[in-house]
Amino acid sequence: MEHCILQVALDTPLDRLFDYRWPLPAPGPVTGDTVEACAAPMPQLGQLVLLPFGRQQMMGLIVGISDHTDVPEAKLKDGLELRSQLPPLSAQWIALCRFAADYYQRPLGEVALPALPRNLRAGKATSLDRNLKKLAKLSPALDANPNPEPPLNAAQQEAVDAISGTASGNAGFAAHLLYGVTGSGKTEVYLQAAARILAQSEQAQVLILVPEINLTPQLETNIRKRFSGIQIATLHSGMAEGERLQHWLAAHLGQARIILGTRLAILASLPYLKMIVIDEEHDPSYKQQEGLRYSARDLAVWRAHQLGIPVVLGSATPSLESWQHAKVGRYRKLELRERAVKDAVLPVVKIINLEHEKPAEGLTARLIASIRLRLEKGEQSLLFLNRRGYAPVIACDACGWISDCTRCTAHLVMHKLDRKLRCHHCGYEQRIPHHCPTCGNIDLQPLGRGTQRMEEGLKLIFPEARVFRIDADSTRFKGSAEAAFDTVHRGEVDILIGTQMVAKGHDFKNLTLVGALNPDSALFSQDYRASERLFAQLMQVAGRAGRAAQKQGGNISEVLIQTRYPDHPLYHALMAHDYDRFANDLLEERQQASMPPFIYQALLRAEAKDLQTALDFLHLAVNCIAHAGITIHDPIPMTMTRVANVERAQLLVESVSRPALQAFLKVWIATLRGLKSRVKWGVEIDPVDISSHPSNSFSPRPYRLLMVALASSFMLSSCGGGADDLIKRLGEVTSCGGKDCKDSSSLRPDEIRANYLISQNAGSVKVEASFSLSTNSATLVSLNGKDKLSASIGSQSSSLNDIDGSGTKYVANLADASPQASVSVSFNRGSEAFVSSVSMPKQFAIVSPSEQIALGRSAGSLYVQLDVASDAAISASTKMLCQRADTSVFEATTALKSVYEPSAAGGAVYRIDTLELDQALNDASRALNSANPNLSLVRSCDLELIWTLSQSGQSASALSKNSSISAQRSASHLLQYDARK
DNA sequence: TGGACAAATGCG
DNA sequence: GCATTTGTCCAT
Ligand SMILES: [Zn+2]
Ligand SMILES: [Zn+2]
Q1: What range(s) does the Helicase ATP-binding domain occupy (predicted)?
Q2: Does the pLDDT at position A524 exceed 60?
Q3: Which terminal residue of chain A, N or C, has fewer Cβ atoms less than 10 Å from its own Cβ?
Q4: ipTM given for this complex
Q5: Among the bound ligands, the one closest to the CA of A641
Q6: Over the stretch A317-353, which tens digit does the pLDDT of each residue have?
Q7: Phi-psi region at A254: left, alpha or beta (left = phi > 0; alpha = psi -120 to 50)
Q8: Is A405 annotated as a binding residue?
């Protein structure tokens, strides 16, 4: 029997495809009977196939079909079952997965297969067959009287026209940033633009993404009421498996034409997709925070681009990334200035200064009075406190014991109702102790206030009022959140207390007061995105009060914010309803400090039983790779170092060039895989939370000093003025060599990050030094006045000089004294000297190849033997002078992946894969010509392969802890590479 | 000498 | 990632 070879992607960490045999129908004339009997189905690209894999069965995705394979006959296995009843996944869907896999640096199979419903990947096809049958019978419900389209105001109409085009036909790719406050009618723009798109073709599908918490049955019902006769599918993580398969299939088959879902819906199969909407695009829940850490927003924009269709990003407080894209014209900004709801006005935002008005039970007298006014008129009040439980921690007054989780770097939170102490990070819980576990004291005090405690206090202050709490604890069960919101809607609640859950999605018609009880903590977070999140949250919660038009004789809608920092610019922007200014100011800070979106980031995380193992792995990771053009920050423990008895550390990698970062990560990840470390590690692209310095104090420092704490530390020491002064100072950063630069004389030694690199070249030793801020390596530091540098080996010493006058790089040359000399670099300030030192790595030679060689791509491997110890920190890089197939020529330098190969020959043998080499050369080629998608491939190169042995030393303790000193010795050899051979 | 456990192996 | 094999330690 004839066979074909299926190339299959599988959900495994192994980054390659797998080949399987599949029997083909017998060729030639077949009689009617035998066709049915013996013809195996003909496999197609995009089909799913059940396979034996290792000792398990797995579902695979066919991404290639061939008539031959390089896999030896003995290893080849046969496919088991083809899911031919399921129409194949489209090439475009596979391309989307391939892009995501590439971008987030994961194997294709780890992206594509988990994107499919679990029941599709099951060994049995029963659920699939059942749901296919069910769907065949299903036809969309026709509503006798669907809700009509309400009229649009001018700005809304303009937005709908811009998004969906006025004429029929394909609107083409365009990204629209739909910017408008709550109540400005964004939803109506989505719906009417969707209606137009759906009317343009019989099959057209529209995908609407909403944040996790906003996907309520209420929203679904509203859409259903509007679009009579159109099938709607929903996709979110809370669905039962069978239900999910049914909705996924409805989308895949094109039956469902509106798909409403959370972030995971972006990876659904949508063969007729014609428009994507992302509601509340700034919402952090669009970023997956485990497994494949993708951003549904970013993938949505790519998918729209791929298909040439419009994508709408809607928000009252757009993410800074989208804001910047709109600024430079990559996105088109559509602004809704008026409120579309009749007679609605923006709520008045007022600040209550906690320094002047001391709160009782967390409530100031003014807030209590305002609530009372609402009670008198029969209106509702909403109190916002982003902290669930009774108290965030309990403590013993006598001995200082506090309720810490033994498994995490976190407090146990007191929950009064079930009399438990609970860790919100690992789920550990215990009974509230009656007495102090260390000294026996009976008097344990709850510290701070959560929603439960507020609820208790409110009931005491307003015994006549109906107080109601909504948070993750009160809505733990399926449907209970809906029931709770219904209670509020029915007017059975006077005072609602809740966490961020109440900020989103629900509009309360009778609500005229919103109180933010204690929002300040987010102002001092180590996470630099905390303030934009706080603004978005307060804006959203404020929107709850603005929905209702003022009633005859009723109260105006008010938002009261209790704060100890009434002058904080965030609150001022909020009072003025001025997100434009707030966003522009933040963007400027980010640009000055070289933070996203002006720099691209990736995070390497490691976790292990003890912190040192994780940190050691990260240090090893830094040392095993050359990294020109990439900034690698020092390994540090994560803010929450321990979670469930696992210690975690991380390493930030940055570059101003996305292609350079991606190319570097590719080589790095392959190298790290080769280390075969048992430390669990992973790389995250575009991380949202890179906060990492464990907070050393609970007492918030004044905001002026902290507002841009991450941006640069020089302001921490010298800034005394207000916020405006601070922003001006940011502008004063001097420019040297076209980069941010700062004078060393204004800095303490520990604010200066010294990076020393000592390299050995043909008998001389070169010492290079550069400096940057401890907190931000993008801001360079130049030496001035009393600061001087010198270096010494044995008895010889030399001062380091600013060679090119840029003030950013200092160099000295010394003769090589002894084979393993110790090199010291001294940072001299007045009479003080801060000395860092490192010992030079031993001289080594390239044992083989001993002369220049020729290497073809088909050779498979290049083996290089070095006379170094087997555990030496060796990294490879290459200089290249290459010609492409179209005869164009370029020069570049890049890191290479090399794998240590245990060998009996003595010394150490390293292997370079020629296919990976070819890829690295083409990556370098493309990095130089990123604008050209059809760039010719590299044909031949003259390469100088450089092998570098690194040794890191001890930095002076007075300098920044982020300082480094490292010594390198290199040896190189030449080779001629030909991709055609 | 076996049994518990950690480490290494290979997946087509 | 996972099932399975191989290696290591140690008590009997
Ligand atoms: Zn005590
Ligand atoms: Zn815990």
Answers
A1: 167-336
A2: yes
A3: N
A4: 0.89
A5: 2
A6: 999 999 999 999 999 999 999 877 666 678 899 999 9
A7: left
A8: yes
Range list of H helices, A91-168: 91-103, 108-112, 126-137, 154-164
CA distance A95 to A112: 10
Which residue's CA shows the smallest distance to C1' of B8? Answer: A676
Measured distance CA(A630)–CA(A622) in Å, rounded:
11
At a CB cut-off of 8 Å and minimum separation 6, what does A641 contact? A409, A611, A647, A648, A649, A694
Rounded Cα distance, A912 and A896, in Å: 8
Rg (CA), chain A: 32
Question: What are the start-end ranges of the E strands in A499-632?
Answer: 511-516, 558-563, 600-608, 631-632
Residues counted in chain A = 981
Report d(CA A213, CA A831) in Å as an integer.
Answer: 61
Nucleotide nearest to A11 (CA to C1'): C1
The label of the residue with tokens 């520990």 reads A750
Q: Two tokens at A323?
A: 């804001």
> Which of A167-176, A552-561, A818-827 has the highest mean predicted lDDT (pLDDT)?
A552-561
Residue A4 annotated as binding site? no
Q: Hey, which residues does A812 pair with through a beta bridge?
A: A767
Per-residue pLDDT tens digits for A744-778: 888 888 888 898 988 877 667 888 898 888 887 77
Q: Say which nucleotide is closest to residue A55, CA to C1' distance.
A: C3
**Cβ contacts of A981 within 8 Å, gap of 6 or more:** A854, A856, A857, A858, A859
Residue A452 pLDDT exceeds 80:
yes
Cα–Cα distance list, A516 to A351, A529, A542 (Å): 10, 19, 9
- Helix or strand holding residue A799 (H, E): strand A796-799
Give A133: exposed, middle or buried? Use CB within 10 Å, 0-12, 13-18, 19+: exposed
**Strand C and chain A: which residues 53-82 have CB closer than 7 Å?**
54-56
A284: closest CA among A116, A527, A111, A497?
A527
A635-656 residues labelled b (16+ CB within 10 A) or e (exposed):
bbbbbebbbeebbbbbbbbbbe
Within 10 Å of residue A262's Cβ, how many Cβ atoms?
Answer: 21
Residue A719's pLDDT is 18
Give the pLDDT confidence score for residue A807 in this predicted structure. Answer: 77
**Which residue's CA shows the smallest distance to C1' of B10?**
A54
Q: What is the DSSP letter of A420?
A: E
**pLDDT of A717 strictly over 90:** no
Rounded Cα distance, A53 and A78, in Å: 10
Which single residue is written with the structure tokens 């895989």? A673
Cα separation of A204 and A202, whole Å? 6
Cα–Cα dist A643/A649, whole Å: 11
Asked whether residue A741 is marked as a ligand-binding residue, the answer is no
- Phi and psi at residue A967, in whole multiples of 5°? -115, 140
Q: What is the Å distance from ligand 1's center to A697 Cα?
A: 22
Query: Read out DSSP for A49-85?
Result: EEEEETTEEEEEEEEEEES--SS-TTT--B--EE-TT
Q: Are A586 and A730 in contact, with CB atoms under 8 Å apart? A: no
H or E element: which one contains A976? strand A964-978
Tell me whether residue A97 is annotated as binding.
Answer: no
d(CA A877, CA A713): 35
Give the integer Cα–Cα distance in Å for A435 and A447. Answer: 16
What does the pLDDT read at residue A146? 87
Give A574-588 pLDDT, tens digit per residue: 999 999 999 999 999
Chain B footprint bases within 7 A of protein beta carbons? 7-8, 10-12
Taking alpha carbons only, the member of A478, A498, A485 closest to residue A218 is A485
- A727 conformational bin, left if phi > 0, alpha if psi -120 to 50, beta if neither: alpha
